[in-house]
Amino acid sequence: MFFVKSLLLNPVLSNLVLQKNPGLLAQTLSRVQISTMAVKEGLLVAGGFQGELICKNLNHPGVAYCTKLTTDENAITNTVDIYRNPSGSRRVIAANNDAQVRVFDAENFTCLNRFSFDWCVNNTCVSPDGKLLAVLGDSADCLIADAQTGKITGSLKGHLDYSFASAWHPDGRILATGNQDTTCRLWDIRNLSESLAVLKGRMGAIRAVRFTNDGRFLAMAEPADFVHIIDTQSGYSKGQEIDIFGEIAGISFSPDAEALFVGVADRTYGSLLEFNRRHFNQYPQTMF
Known about the structure:
CATH architecture of the largest domain: 7 Propeller
Number of helices: 0
Strand order of the largest sheet: 18-19-20-21-22-23
CATH class of the largest domain: Mainly Beta
Strand content: over 45%
Shape: globular
Number of domains: 2
CATH topology of the largest domain: Methylamine Dehydrogenase, Chain H
Order of helices and strands: EEEEEEEEEEEEEEEEEEEEEEE
Number of strands: 23
Helix content: under 10%
């Protein structure tokens, strides 16, 4: 039996109040419709449909930083993330439809790097060691770049359409990519010549992928109705399909890998669903 909990969330932020931060270059924003969000180490980062970037320290009132990254007509901020570079410094990364990826210092929000590509960037993901950057977008090929310089070091070929999601296994050796061609491909970073495995969805594109912190499970979500959980210890051959109702806004595992959260973006029944992992005979071998 699943334990399910529902919570209504408001996807619009209004009347943002900036923390007092002398010398910080920022813009006052209002009525921001959220397109993407990340939370890590007490920092919340959100992107908006008009190219906004909003950063908030969860332990302080107000917003630490907010600005418009671009004024392009189709300026949506597609993805944001928080990571630490190889020296341990915390960084914020944002990718936009203007074909650029921007890297910010997470302490003073200075823009440190800006990488340009040949197509709209739909998703980026930094490897656990902070050295590699996966770049996916309006191209059938996915790119691997140096996270410090943006220099392209590899290309992943196999998908048939545009890509929208990626996630690194905690060991940093396996990268999962979700594509409009209804598949999630797994790549061994030590051999990029071909994908390690191809996982198929039921009906739609793979719009979100997540590994548990221990690397035991991989979850992948379609745009609506279906979430798939794969057991990585089975060689990615065994899994569970969760059939829900409504458009899926996103997925995330709890830090202890005991719960899976699924956001439902239905206008009437919008909610946050929680699925708890089941255990039999005191052995954590089962799915959610």
